[in-house]
Amino acid sequence: MKRTCLYLVFYFLIALLGPASVYAQVPDSTWGKKFENYPTFKFKGLFQARYVVSTNEDVDVGGQHHEDRSGTSNSFALKYMRAQVQAKISQRTEVVALVNLADFKNDPKTRVLENAYLKYTFSPKAAITVGQFRPWFGIEETIPADIIKSLDWSNQYSEFGKLGWTSFQIGASIGGTLHLGKMPFQYAVSVVNGNGKNQVSDSDNGKQYMTRLVFGLSKKYGVNIGLNGGVGEVIKKNVYAWGADVVGNIPFSAKWNLDLQLEGKQATNHALYKTILEEDRPGDINSYLVRGVYFLPNLRYQIRHKNLGSIEASCRYEYLDRSFSRDSNPRQTLTPMLGLEFLKDYGARIQIGMQMDRYKHQVANTTTYNGNLFIVQVQSRL
Q1: Section 353-361 average pLDDT
Q2: Counting beta carbons within 10 angstroms of the beta carbon of residue 46, is it exposed (0 to 12), middle (13 to 18) or buried (19 or more)?
Q3: d(C-alpha 91, C-alpha 177), whole Å
């Protein structure tokens, strides 16, 4: 009997330590003869400012209509003064913090801090991110603010950020790169509070779950197709979101190329639903739906001169309807832009553009009003 027990203990230890011996073959930052000093740090920064002029005398620089023409029609504005630190704690672990000091010009209560997360990478196939970050739910989540191919984020991105699907959120995510035969595809699965950034806690115990798949169809032309889907619970009601997008790059020559982005999304507009008095709300929260699409072509000419790297021209078209299923009033925005890149990777850039908004129905003394903004924007990456 004792011998049988000893055999059982022996086999248990083998079963327990066997997998450990397999994992031990993968070197960690503190194993082996080669030892690196951790943590290591990387620092980055971004300065971005603009001059804005409204060409409509009764619409201010924020898009607000004023019947008495009392609004500010031109203004200098500081958009970003970002500082980022990336601390690599081990070969697989990093902590990232990103702040926008320009947000101190507003009430900083839910601003300033943008990224604050820890990322642990098991392999290229799987990495876990926890904290405050941008969950992957579209094209723009992987594009830093300083290399946007237009003057600013799309209206769709901003609207879905208010709904908890995009922009900075608090939660956890796992993602990586896998292969279907020879075709690579990336995935991300995230769960977030859905209340936006810098919140003390979840506001209603509800969570939003989302996933994204990106299939690499052509490496030569950079053709990727993305699919997004999400479900969640807000004020004890079920909500959803979905979307699809495609990107590509057409190289005409060694100096000329054309980037293309096309993205569409639809979701429950629970932010609009919550603005209605509780006694007047309809039973079905999904009777309030938002739908948006944008198309962004960007033509780039590589000059490679010592003082001027490239010239870019783009014109983004956007369609956004915050409640297409009830009280539809779509907003269409056209943003033509010319950009001059003076240092590599947009280290220094000047952009000149127009933002032209058109609504199906205008509402006086609100931001739901037709307007044209002329914008000159300068930036420098540190």
Answers
A1: 97
A2: buried
A3: 19
Cα distances (angstroms) measured from residue 132 to each of 98, 191, 246: 10, 11, 27
- 3-state SS, residue 141: helix
pLDDT tens-digit map of 144-167:
888 899 999 999 999 999 999 999
User: Angle CA(67)–CA(288)–CA(61) in degrees, nearest 5?
Assistant: 30
Instruction: Give the confidence band of 245 by pLDDT, cuts at 50, 70, 90.
Output: very high
> Is the Cβ–Cβ distance between 149 and 314 less than 8 Å?
yes
Q: Cα separation of 104 and 319, whole Å?
A: 32
Cα-Cα end-to-end distance for the chain: 72
Residue 305, both tokens: 């001169």
**Alpha-carbon gap, residue 152 to 316, rounded angstroms:** 10
The CA distances from residue 10 to 1, 5, 18, 93, in Å, are 14, 9, 12, 35
Q: What is the helix (H) or strand (E) element at residue 159, kind and residue range?
A: helix 155-162
CA-CA distance, 97 to 115, in Å (whole number)? 5
Task: Quickly list DSSP for 82-133.
Answer: EEEEEEE-SSSEEEEEEEEGGGGGS-GGG-SEEEEEEEEEEETTEEEEEEEE
Q: What is the pLDDT of residues 305-352, one digit of tens each?
A: 888 999 999 999 999 999 998 889 999 999 999 999 998 888 899 999
SS (H, E, C) 56-90: CCCECCCCCECCCCCCCCEEEEEEEEEEEEEEECC
pLDDT for 95-138, tens place per residue?
Answer: 999 999 999 988 888 899 999 999 999 999 999 999 999 999 99
